[in-house]
Amino acid sequence: MEQSTESDFAGIVTNERVLHMEEDRYRPGHIIYADQYALKTSDGTNTSIVAGSPTENNYREAVGIDSRFEIIRGFAQVADGRIIVADTGNNCLRQVNRTSDVTSVFSGPCKASRYRGKSEVPLNSPWSVIVDNQNSSQLLFADHYNYVVKSVEISTGVVSNFSRQEKNQEPKYYVVTYMAQDTNGDIFITGYNAIYRIAYDERTIQHISGSSRHSGYRDSTLLNSLYDRITDLAFIGPRTFLVVEERLRLVHTNSNRVTTVDRRVSYEFLWRCKWGSMCRRHPHPESLLATNNSLYVGLLGRIKRYKCELQS
């Protein structure tokens, strides 16, 4: 990846954190993104709310801006015009109809307590959602605190386990946060500071980079590299993908290397500590979108756009 220019995409476009981004299939030329509690769409000049509220979280089935989500960690757009939303805080999948703007339950139950036993909570903090590129009738999603990747039928909302860890199984990925699928169907998932590969046909799990027990910063071979809370990954080639934490890093599985692309992705931002003092640390960038020789990085309060040659 060769970086050329950097700019803000639509300036300040969000009140909170940009937790996921995709090209808007319903409105060409737009980027649709999760603004923590709301879905928004923007062409870089005009921004509008698709569903939810950027300032108020809760649970409400309604139309457009009257609907409420707890936290939107991910979503996927399906061919019939719906958006399937991972409502992480409400422990369920919701659906937004782009024609009627109605938000409703897709797979639940919603608002189930995450503190009950796993057998009582069908979904426990769902995070990223993707359309299965090997089976267009289903979605795959990360069931975060159930430590499993699940599938859900698009037509019915019926959920099944796609890949589950057995007790004492190694490698252990603890939680499932973000994921992406390569052209062969294999799924690459992050578990905070490590990256794993799930073979699509065999459902076997392989630890490919980072550490499940240690965080840090080190560019090296895949297994010797260290990360500090990976927040997203995006493929830019068959076996090459970008990951983002405080830095933007390139993971090249064929050459067995991790390299830093940009150490300054979040350099200009500060977070204020909860109890009043100024924390001089950078907030993590939260999301990535690589498309049309542009890389979009979702941050706190804005989306940055890098015009660059995306190559493997």
Please describe what this structure looks like.
The protein is mostly beta strands. The chain has a domain at 22-238: Neuraminidase, CATH 2.120.10. Helices cover 0% and strands 44% of the residues. It contains no helices and 26 strands. Strands 1-26-25-24 form a four-stranded antiparallel β-sheet, with no helix packed on it. A four-stranded antiparallel β-sheet has the order 2-3-4-5, with no helix packed on it. Strands 6-7-8-9 form a four-stranded antiparallel β-sheet, with no helix packed on it. The radius of gyration is 18 Å and the shape is globular. Mean pLDDT is 83; it is low at 115-120 and 266-282.
What is the topological layout?
Blueprint: E1 2-9, E2 18-23, E3 31-35, E4 38-42, E5 47-52, E6 72-77, E7 82-87, E8 92-97, E9 103-107, E10 126-131, E11 138-143, E12 148-153, E13 159-164, E14 179-181, E15 187-190, E16 194-198, E17 205-210, E18 232-237, E19 240-244, E20 248-252, E21 257-262, E22 271-272, E23 278-279, E24 287-291, E25 294-298, E26 303-309
Antiparallel strand pairs: 1-26, 2-3, 3-4, 4-5, 6-7, 7-8, 8-9, 10-11, 11-12, 12-13, 14-15, 15-16, 16-17, 18-19, 19-20, 20-21, 22-23, 24-25, 25-26
